[in-house]
Every structure is written in C-alpha cells, then in structure tokens.
Design goal:
The chain is α+β, with helices and mostly antiparallel strands. The protein has a single domain, classed as Cytidine Deaminase, domain 2, CATH 3.40.140.10. The structure holds tetrahydrodeoxyuridine (THU). Tetrahydrodeoxyuridine (THU) binds next to helix 2.
C-alpha cells in the first residue's frame, strides 16, 4: 500500500472522478466513479447505478470493467475508485471478485475529491481468491 498526500489526479483518476458525476444514486446518495486502464492504454469509466429493488444496484467498478469487456478489452493495468469520503472508499466484496477474475492482480487506487490517494495490489484486497483456475 502506498499513502499519498493531496496531489493532482492523473488521467485515470480524473476519468473516475468525472464518471462519479453521472452516478445514479437516488437511494443511498452515495456517489462512486471508477475507471479502468486497458493494456493498450484505453480508458473506460463507470458510475454506480442504483435500482428501486436495491439488490439490482450495480457498483461503479463493475460498470467500468463491463464497459471495457464489451468493447473487447481483455488485459488491464490499473483501476481507480473515486468517492467523496475522508476514509477512502474500497471496492465491495462482489467487485473485488469480478475485478480479480477479469483483471488479475492489478494496481487499484482509491481517491477522493480532496486529492487523497492510496494504492494497493488487488491481491492484497482479496487474499486467496477463488477463480477459474480451480475449475
Ligand atoms: N458502491 C460502489 O459503486 N462502489 C463501491 O466501491 C462501494 C459502493 C455503490 C453501491 C451503492 O450504489 C452505493 O455505493 C452505496 O453502497
């Protein structure tokens, strides 16, 4: 893990922060943005999209990675999660699993709007993961 003081966001962080503006979060009011960087440099972003049934809500991380996958991306370098919390918002367990299966042990950076950032390896957030290698 690396801890960073306030600093200007890089391009991927900027994309995640911008995507957060599109969050559809009328129930929780908790707005999240995410962005993934593909191995070829393409960037895809996503926001959380809530649903009146609550359970059908999709997190920003999954929207971003599914957008990338549906455009043909299969190899990834990084993912950023942006929320407006002092304690930086980590991905939920479901997203950790999805990110692991499609992205592997990528760098995951958490940011807020004040310029705080922390970076982790996904494997450290999802120790001993289950994946297709067991099937
Ligand atoms: N949420 C995300 O989109 N990503 C996260 O990393 C944490 C949670 C969303 C889901 C829901 O719309 C709202 O935040 C509150 O849980």
């Amino acid at each position: 893990m690396s801890l960073g003081g306030p600093r200007p966001p890089d391009a991927l962080e900027t994309a995640a922060i911008a995507a957060r503006e599109h969050a559809f979060a009328p129930f929780s009011k908790f707005r999240v943005g995410a962005a993934v960087e593909c191995a070829d440099g393409r960037i895809y972003s996503g926001c959380n999209i809530e649903n009146a049934t609550y359970g059908l809500t999709v997190c920003a991380e999954r929207v971003a990675v599914f957008k990338a996958l549906s455009e043909g991306a299969r190899a990834f370098r990084r993912v950023v999660v942006a929320a407006d919390t002092a304690t930086l918002t980590p991905p939920c367990g479901a997203c950790r699993q999805i990110l692991w299966e499609f992205m592997g042990d990528v760098e995951i950076t958490l940011v807020n709007l004040a310029g705080a950032a922390e970076s982790y390896r996904l494997k450290d957030l999802l120790p001993r993961p289950f994946d297709a290698s067991y099937l």
